[in-house]
Amino acid sequence: MEQNSNLICSIGFNDKKYPTKIKGKHTDEYTVWQNMLARCTKRCWDKYPTYIGTSCSENFKSYSYFYEWYQTQPNANNKDEDGNKWCLDKDLLFKGNKLYSETTCIFIPQRINVLLTKSNAIRGKHPIGVSWKKQSEMYSARCKIGRDKRVNIGYFNTPETAFLAYKTFKEQLIKDVANNYKEQLDSRAYDALMNYSVDIDD
Q: Is residue 145 part of a domain?
């Protein structure tokens, strides 16, 4: 594709086929596209290491292609119960995927997106959902159930048993939330959530 204008985030290009602003405000399509491109840059990776290695397909580098793809996507314009736009997700259908593309991306509610977000930087050397509690000299299993909410699952003698408790709790939570959104979700997203497996090296 011919690049007719300055690159956006040093990656994407806009051939001016579709509007980027309406009444002085960026369109939803452009906002989602620009944010996606930003996550594919070293500047983002330095601030948010979880995105290191993230890229996008050649097609997604084109705003006009992305705009047309966006129009065909279930839930692209959905909002959740708090009025938040659904999120462009790249790794629910293909766990561990780092490529934003027309075949890997879907839109999911923020609540589900938060459930699947990992916190590698803060959990340290222990398995996901597990931490060592010096006061009790036991391993604690805790699970995030919202953006700023966590629930204590229990205390265990080994990190492995703590993880298994976390895994059981988290997988059931994901299924419960998926069923709450079942009537709205893309069937591919629903199936992926119902079969989602929490692994010890997540």
A: yes
